């Protein structure tokens, strides 16, 4: 069975500082990894994905994520946080299950303070 | 020009009733999904539907049934509603049922059971 862990319920960071939202995964075979963001009363929005190739993946709104196979991690990063980045962030993995369905982590709330 | 739209946005009803949630996507995608997000924001896949092939998460009660009149629509029917069904239900779509395809989400339907 595949699983995703986001160890932090909430991450607090000051505007302008770098941010990291952590994610570790467990899946049989090669992982396909995703980050999504959810703003209040909205659906999830796709940020970026790792399929293969370069371990550093760049996505929307200046976000990037680093794939680390040995640590089975896919941490989300941004060099300089904005107040508008405050939202709920979900990491997800797609493995070799029927229907290639996504398994999501429990989510991490990012709070960026001015 | 909403990509994935769900109706209604809010649904309040009594225990034991039967209700439906509609979902439409105008992205030309082949695969549609239903997710349940509980009060702790945990997101769980319920169904994946592609070209008349339905993949069901085994933990979903058979009171829940998706119905697809055409490729652009995947409606969710729920019979004999229970208190534990209270949640936000999200519809999503992707271009193919491929492991590398990002999903596009609607804004959710908040279901409250009295």
How do the SSEs of chain B run, as a string of H and E?
EEEEEEEEEEE
Average pLDDT figure of chain A: 93
Q: Which overall shape of chain A is indicated by the principal axes computed on the Cα atoms?
A: globular
Strand content of chain A is over 45%
Cα-based radius of gyration of chain A, to the nearest Å: 14 Å
Helix content of chain B: under 10%
Total beta-strand segments of chain B: 11
Mean pLDDT of chain B: 91
* Quaternary state of the chains: heterodimer
Could you tell me the strand content of chain B as a percent range?
A: over 45%
Largest sheet of chain B at a glance? Answer: 7 strands, mixed
The first-to-last residue Cα distance of chain A is 41 Å
Question: Structural class of the helices, strands and pairings of chain B?
Answer: mainly beta
Annotation, overall tally of beta strands of chain A? 12
Sheet with the most strands of chain A?
A: 6 strands, mixed
Helix content of chain A: under 10%
**Shape verdict of chain B:** globular
Uncertain residue ranges of chain A: none
Compressed to H and E, one letter per element, the order of chain A equals EEEEEEEEEEEE
Q: Structural class per helix/strand content of chain A?
A: mainly beta
